[in-house]
């Protein structure tokens, strides 16, 4: 199964919400016809250059299934934001096919020219993307651009160095417990080979020298290993780069406080409506299922929900193979209270 779901429908949005989005787009067009220029080839780039958004742009980056949709929706809902949801990933996968992985090292990109084009369009604030990428068309009024920052949420942290070099965004790196991410991948059926289409042969060989890579066929072992590998690679790319690392579990435990820190780091205005949205989205109680796309949950329940959803032996497989590569995060005994702690990598 593809790691991205349907390209035509955002699973976080109910049908009546999609009609609401269409109505938003119609209202935005009537209120500001000039905004249509941003949707046109060439003219969109020209309009964005003449009326640029406020700098710097913001990039919220994480692996898939790490909780970035919630973080992106709240930050992107700021009165000072122009929000794009996965513009690079969704456009790239539409371009090359959705059987391909959404995150990978840059040399593994199958069409770097196209990916760079989608990234440039994103960070310049040209919203020539589908409705799922541009969830609030009313934000994109030409007259408001100079007071607003582009906020991009995307799920390929393995290319952060390239994106920072070319576009200089403020970077928020969202981390989530590797067992929780693995559990969500498994629930969605994303259980194929976790290595060969994401990492270069050189990278795989280097990590294999640290500890033998788990063989294809044991998803839980590979899930632990690839997350530790990704974390190491991303940490190296962000050395010397101004960025903010945020743990999903901390946001769940103290949502208002953690979001205030993120808004301050980005330079985005934090309004009373923003606070109300954080409180409402973190106290909702929808019908929860592992792997389900949702940006409204009772956040305290999500801190360690994975413990009750995973078999102890699967937790142990993730733990041992994750810790084997000496990650900097989620490496303390207290981070793994339900796993057997007798392995040699603790």
Outline the structure in words.
There is one protein chain. The protein is an alpha/beta fold. The protein is built from 15 helices and 5 strands. Strands 2-3-1-4-5 form a 5-stranded parallel beta sheet, with helices on both faces. Helices cover 44% and strands 9% of the residues. It is globular and about 55 Å long. α4 (87-96) runs antiparallel to α5 (112-123) and α7 (178-187) packs across α9 (219-237). Residues 5-14 and 340-346 have low confidence and may be disordered. It has a domain at 15-176 and 240-310: 3-Layer(aba) Sandwich (Rossmann fold). The two termini are 34 Å apart. It has helices at residues 15-31, 43-50, 68-76, 87-96, 112-123, 160-167, 178-187, 201-210, 219-237, 248-253, 255-266, 272-281, 299-302, 306-309, 312-323; strands at 54-61, 81-85, 149-154, 170-175, 243-247.
Quick gist of this model?
By secondary structure, the chain is of the alpha/beta class. It has helices at residues 15-31, 43-50, 68-76, 87-96, 112-123, 160-167, 178-187, 201-210, 219-237, 248-253, 255-266, 272-281, 299-302, 306-309, 312-323, and strands spanning 54-61, 81-85, 149-154, 170-175, 243-247.
Largest sheet: 5 strands, parallel
Give me the side-by-side strand order of the main sheet: 2-3-1-4-5
Give a count of the beta strands, DSSP E runs of length 2 or more.
5
First-last Cα distance: 34 Å
Strand content: 5-15%
Tell me the radius of gyration: 20 Å
What share of residues is helical? 40-55%
Determine and state the CATH class of the domain at 15-176 and 240-310. Answer: Alpha Beta
Low-pLDDT segments: 5-14, 340-346
Q: Decide which structural class fits the backbone.
A: alpha/beta
Which word captures the global form? globular
* Mean pLDDT over the full residue set: 86
CATH-derived topology of the domain at 15-176 and 240-310? Rossmann fold
Assign the CATH architecture of the domain at 15-176 and 240-310: 3-Layer(aba) Sandwich
**Count of alpha and pi helical runs:** 15
| Secondary-structure element pattern, one letter each | HHEHEHHEHEHHHEHHHHHH
């Amino acid at each position: 199964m593809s790691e991205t779901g349907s390209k035509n429908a955002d699973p976080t949005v109910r049908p009546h919400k999609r009609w609401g989005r269409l109505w938003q787009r119609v209202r935005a067009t009537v209120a500001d016809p000039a905004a249509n220029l941003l949707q046109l080839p060439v003219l969109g780039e020209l309009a964005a250059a003449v009326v640029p958004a406020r700098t710097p742009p913001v990039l919220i980056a994480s692996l898939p299934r790490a909780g970035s949709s919630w973080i992106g929706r709240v930050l992107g809902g700021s009165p000072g934001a122009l929000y794009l949801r996965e513009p690079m990933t969704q456009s790239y996968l539409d371009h090359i096919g959705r059987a391909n992985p959404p995150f990978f090292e840059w040399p593994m990109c199958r069409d770097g020219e196209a990916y760079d084009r989608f990234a440039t369009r994103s960070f310049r604030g040209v919203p020539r993307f589908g409705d799922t990428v541009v969830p609030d068309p009313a934000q994109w009024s030409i007259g408001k651009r100079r007071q607003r920052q582009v906020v991009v949420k995307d799920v390929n942290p393995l290319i952060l160095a390239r994106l920072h070099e070319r576009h200089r965004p403020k970077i928020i790196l969202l981390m989530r417990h590797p067992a929780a991410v693995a559990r969500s991948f498994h629930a969605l059926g994303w259980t194929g080979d976790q290595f060969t289409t994401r990492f270069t042969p050189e990278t795989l060989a280097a990590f294999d020298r640290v500890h033998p890579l788990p063989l294809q066929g044991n998803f839980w072992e590979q899930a632990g290993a690839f997350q530790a590998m990704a974390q190491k690679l991303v940490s190296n790319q962000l050395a010397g780069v101004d960025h903010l690392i945020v743990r999903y579990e901390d946001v769940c435990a103290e949502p208002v406080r953690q979001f205030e820190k993120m808004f301050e780091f980005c330079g985005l205005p934090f309004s009373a409506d923003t606070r109300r949205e954080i409180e409402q989205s973190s106290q909702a109680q929808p019908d929860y299922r592992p792997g389900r796309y949702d940006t409204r949950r009772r956040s305290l329940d999500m801190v360690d929900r994975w413990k009750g959803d995973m078999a102890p032996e699967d937790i142990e497989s993730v733990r041992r193979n994750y810790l084997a590569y000496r990650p900097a995060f989620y490496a303390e005994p207290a981070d793994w209270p339900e796993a057997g702690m007798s392995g040699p990598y603790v």
